[in-house]
Structure formats: structure tokens, C-alpha cells
Amino acid sequence: MKHLPPLATLRALDAASRHLSFTRAAEELNVTQSAVSHQIRHLEEFWDVKLFDRHTRRLEATAAGKALAGVAQDFFHRLDETLENVRQPSGHTALRIEMVPTFAVKWLVPRLQAFRDAEPDVDVWISTRVQDALRLDDDALDAVIHLGGGDYPGYRSWPLLREYAFPVCRPRFIEEHGMPSSPADLCNYPLLLRHHEIEMPAWEYWFESAGVPAEIYRPAITDGPRFPDSNMALQAAYEGQGIALGRSSHVWEDLKQGRLHRLFDICCPFARAYHLVVRPERAERPSIVAFRNWLVDQAQQSQAEYDAAECGPQA
């Protein structure tokens, strides 16, 4: 205990190491920048060790700073986690997972009851973000389901599902507007677009895979309604407003039940895949191990279905 400084200084170390900025750390802690700087100075004097190299426009943690900040971060997370657990009835453990909304709604939530039946003492708390950025620096999260290339240095990760992209619409839409005769003919139909498709399969990707020249498809994807996430674009497709670019994990059950119709037999494997990503110091916690094993098994079953059906059933 002789090496334990005031708690406020450890909070300052935690925030400063994550933001690499005294100013941003101060904003998070709702104190002044000089207060954070003073607390870090106090720690350095208290422990007789340099925690940060201070440059003109940036802050860089030293090796000692990184090591001690990791201890502080783990302490605060364990404290928060323990408080949540002791407040939970019957010793339940809260497991906080973040992912993009459509994957949560269309793939994970319909399967979640099976996990609850198998692990009744683990409560999964789902949070979502429209932009699929990795955010494991947030102590409130235990794991992230991330759509990426599989390279997560400093973290533990497990591959889950590969993505396929293909056009989908409501069956009644075809009855009302007629069946497109070719991939290029889709350009004469209302296409439902996303605001940001940098990380996602985009219409350009599908048209190019289908061999449609850019001069034909580009005017069709310039104008039209745009949505912030796939969930909203698919909802518009359900309502008969146009044709959306679906992804196998998002539309599989709707295709099987006939709520959506897949157009053409052209489906494009996407280079990115869903991964479960966890901080290494949390990876072997019993609740995360149980969820990971269940999730990987569910994903393997789904992937086998997708691959066997060559992307998805057609009505």
C-alpha cells in the first residue's frame, strides 16, 4: 500500500494514456488541463519514474507509463465489473458487447436465447454503433464484434463470419415493377444507398463484380435515398421502396421465409469478415470464454449454410 497514490491521480493516468492528450483527458474527467498535468507530475514524483514524454503537439507514454497505465485501467475495470456483479441478483455477470446495429438485430439477437439458456448467470448487454470502429479502449466494453480484415495487434480475436453481398427486394416489388433482365438493368430501378460504404460492400463493388461498366452504374448510385446503416436500407426494401444491397448474415432468414427476394445468382464475397475482439487480459474470463465458444459455434453453423447455398436461397 505504500506505493498507492491518490485515486484521482490514477484516473488522470488512465485517461491521459488512452487519449495521449492532457486536454482530452481533462475533458473526460471534467477538470482543467493543468489539473491533469499536475496529477501526472505528482505521480511521477511519487513513484520516481517518468510516465510521459511531452512533445510540442503530442504526448507519448514511456514504457513505464504504458505498464502502469495498464495496471490502472485494469483496476478500474475490475472495480466497475465487481460493483455491477455484486449489484446483480443471484450473482449474475454482465457481459458488455458492442457491434454494428444490423448484425445485432438480424443475426445475434435472434440466437441469443440459446446462450441465455446455456449460461443463465451471464447477462449479455448489447450496445451498437453505426460506424464500425474498434473501440476496445472503452473500459465499459468487454468485447467487440468487428467487421474487419482480421489484423488486431495487441488484442485477442476469433473469426466468425465472412460476408457475401447481393441485391434484395420485397417480392411484391417485382410484381409491381417487373423483374430486371440483367445486372445493368438494375440501374433503371430505385436503389437504396448508404451514406458511408467505405468499410462495407457497396453498390460499386457488386456492379463491378457483375461486369457492369462504371459509365452505366455510376449515374444510378449518385441520386436517391440514403440511409446511415444497413438496417434502415433493408427496412426500406421491406416496405417496397426499392432494391437494397443485402449481406448474407443480415438477410438470410428473410430470404428463407420469403420476406425478401434475391436478384440474380451473382453474389460477391467481401474481403472483410466479422471477428470477436477482446483485450488479452480479459480473454480468459469465464463469462467471455463461455460467450466466445458459443458465438464461434453459432457462426460456424451459419457460415456452412451460407457457403452450401452459394450466398443465399432464391425465391
Descriptive overview:
This protein has helices spanning 7-19, 22-29, 33-47, 63-87, 101-118, 171-177, 203-209, 214-217, 230-238, 248-256, 286-308; strands spanning 52-54, 59-61, 93-99, 122-128, 143-148, 156-169, 193-194, 226-227, 244-247, 261-262, 268-278. It has 11 helices and 11 strands. Helix 1 packs across helix 3 and helix 1 packs across helix 4 (63-87). It folds into 2 domains: 7-86, Winged helix-like DNA-binding domain superfamily/Winged helix DNA-binding domain (Arc Repressor Mutant, subunit A); 91-315, D-Maltodextrin-Binding Protein, domain 2, CATH 3.40.190. The strands form 3 sheets. Strands 3, 4, 5, 6, 9, 10 and 11 form a 7-stranded mixed beta sheet that branches. Strands 1-2 form a two-stranded antiparallel sheet.
Blueprint of the fold:
Layout lengths: L6 H13 L2 H8 L3 H15 L4 E3 L4 E3 L1 H25 L5 E7 L1 H18 L3 E7 L14 E6 L7 E14 L1 H7 L15 E2 L8 H7 L4 H4 L8 E2 L2 H9 L5 E4 H9 L4 E2 L5 E11 L7 H23 L7
Helix pairs in contact: 1-2, 1-3, 1-4, 2-3, 5-10
